[in-house]
Specification:
The protein is α+β, with helices and mostly antiparallel strands and 97 residues long. It is 21% helix and 39% strand. Strand 4 and strand 5 form a beta hairpin.
């Protein structure tokens, strides 16, 4: 099984009934600058059904991380984006609350 490490998703496209997600990594910013997004040159291509199924699975993982105290829920109405991991580091996730 091939394994590819990514930090997130870059551009997304819907083409002919498929969802195409560009995979990206982050590289350290120079002189304290924010990390730079680097395309991996790879793309995840999913059927609409597969994309929806994956979304459901990711939502379950986020819920498990919240239950374990690894992620904290954001207050209602604060918008989607970054939840704080228990150790204080920001981790990108879908809004968990």
């Amino acid at each position: 099984m091939q394994k590819t490490f990514i930090d997130g998703i870059g551009a997304t496209q819907v083409v002919s009934g498929t969802i195409r997600l560009d995979l990206v990594t982050l590289s350290a910013g120079e002189g304290g600058a924010a990390p730079a997004v680097q395309p991996t040159g790879e793309q995840l291509v999913l059927s609409l059904e597969g994309f929806v199924r994956m979304h459901g699975q990711m939502t379950q993982v986020v819920e498990q991380l919240v239950e374990r105290g690894i992620l904290q829920r954001r207050p209602a109405g604060s918008g989607p984006g970054v939840d704080k991991a228990r150790d204080g580091r920001a981790s990108r996730s879908e809004k968990a609350g």
